[in-house]
Amino acid sequence: MKNYKLKIVQCFFIMMLVISSGKLCAQAIQYTTTANGLQKFKETKLATTALMPTDTSIVNIQMDVSKGFQKMEGFGFALTGGSAALIDQLPSTKKQILLKEIFGKGKDDLAVCYIRISIGASDLDAHVFSYDDLPKGETDSLLLKFSLSEDTLHLIPILKKALAINPSLKIMASPWSPPTWMKTNGFSMGGHLLKQYYASYANYFVKYIQAMQKHGIPIASVTLQNEPEHGGNNPSLLMDAPEQANFLANYIGPQFKAANINTEVILYDHNADHPNYPISILNDTLAKSYAAGTAFHLYLGNELALSEVHNAHPDKKIVFTEQWTGAKGDFGGDLMWHLEHIVVGTINNWSSAVIEWNLAADASFNPHTPGGCSECKGAFTIQGDAVSRNVSYYIIGQASKFIPVGAQRVATSSNTENIKSTGFMLANGKKANLVVNTGKQQKVKIEADSKQIIFEMPAQSASTIIW
Q1: How far is CA 26 from the centre of its chain?
Q2: Closest CA to 400 of 170, 84, 105
Q3: Residue 52: what are its φ and ψ, rounded to 5°?
């Protein structure tokens, strides 16, 4: 018994010596999600220690917090009209609990702080509509019949509830198609904007932003056209780079200025295979003066294209606005690919926001327009009163729950191809690192400010470390 007590005293003094010598420092927390689905935001407490030599088999991530890059504006989803309708039909209590989970900032919430909505219908609405639909052959260049009536049914009520939970929620709005009477083909799919309606369509944006503001919905940013090089969706519009430059420089920009609208204008909103599209617009001095930045999708191309646009015009922001998860995808494959390329990849190439497609669908991937996406899986599946969570919930949550608005990306590098990471300084003085392990189980070390954190990563997993 005497020896046992002596050992306890000795252990206590050794511990105190380690603490006083600075070897044991502040606690870190690891949140892990695995491709096999067995761990989802699993919390593990770690200790940071003074920098010291370690086993060379440990993967080393180095963070240099003295080198700062873009500040994050947020993470989130597209809140389509279909998503809003599915959420809105839930019983009142269940609806409020779900919205709190999405937009709240509690321990069990996603803390979504940036969403994308459609101006008029997207292809994930139950039917095609604009805010000025007319019988065939009629026109309304003064937009006297403009109305948000479709959005007042579900979208605006859900937006109001979301803003009550998070008043600082950022909302981006993107059009899929103008009213058909403004188009060269008179149809909801494809076609170009008729030249005689450029001024009317710019006024359509102005009236939309003003009307939403009257409902208490501030529109932080607009893109000028969703996927302007893809006319096969329903609805859709083709808009090439010279057309978008002209529309911005001579119509949208001046009309926003005249109406004292401060909503940001974001270019392109399409795939990373054509970075020259936004670069050519930003090369136009007048158009550039009205543009805040460029939006990308990654159905084609490589995330390195985002840096190409940034390097050409470093004074303009980059945001990532859409990537779907589909009916035929599997949890593990989608989780790893999206976290590696859509989250870590785009952030390391200057994206200040990451928005996935789409917030909710039912078990049959409805609603959608005729010809719209029939396999788009929501972050939530809502079937009647039943709500379940899908892979994009965890893709976005791995970042949104732990990396708040205002976090600044800092220089980060690793010594292996299987470990991808992006590091941040948070506004509260803490540090964060989102690490994606695409290989086998691995021990990892993060070095920053002469301190180190050593932790285990399961095979095919992602961990967000906060300290």
Answers
A1: 31
A2: 105
A3: -155, 160
- Give the model confidence (pLDDT) of 6-58 as tens digits: 444 444 443 443 333 333 346 999 999 999 999 999 999 999 888 877 677 89
Q: Is 441 in contact with 459 (CB distance < 8 Å)?
A: yes
Task: Decide if 219 contacts 256 (C-beta within 8 A).
Answer: no
Domain ranges across the chain: 26-70+410-466, 73-402
pTM for the model: 0.94
Tens-digit pLDDT profile for residues 331-388 = 999 999 999 999 999 999 999 999 999 999 999 999 999 999 999 999 999 999 999 9
Residue 43 amino acid letter:
E
**3-state SS assignment for residue 388:** strand
The distance from CA 287 to its chain's CA centroid, rounded to whole angstroms, is: 25
Pairwise CA distance, residues 133 & 121, whole Å? 12
Q: Which residues of 7-20 are buried (b: 16+ CB within 10 A; e: fewer)?
A: eeeeeeeeeeeeee
Instruction: Provide the token pair at 429.
Output: 């003085």
* CATH architecture, range 26-70+410-466: Sandwich (2.60)
| Residue 207: its H or E element | helix 198-214
The answer for residues whose C-beta is within 8 angstroms of residue 201's C-beta and 6 or more apart is: 178, 182, 193, 247, 251
Give residue-wise pLDDT tens across range 67-92: 999 999 999 999 999 999 999 999 99
Longest dimension (CA), the chain: 100
CATH topology identical between 26-70+410-466 and 73-402 = no
For 73-402, CATH number? 3.20.20.80
Using a pLDDT cut of 90, give the percent of the chain over it.
92
> Where does residue 86 rank: exposed (0-12), middle (13-18), buried (19+ CB within 10 A)?
buried
User: How many CB atoms within 10 Å of residue 101?
Assistant: 19
pLDDT digit string (tens) for 100-152?
999 999 999 999 999 999 999 999 999 999 999 999 999 999 999 999 999 99
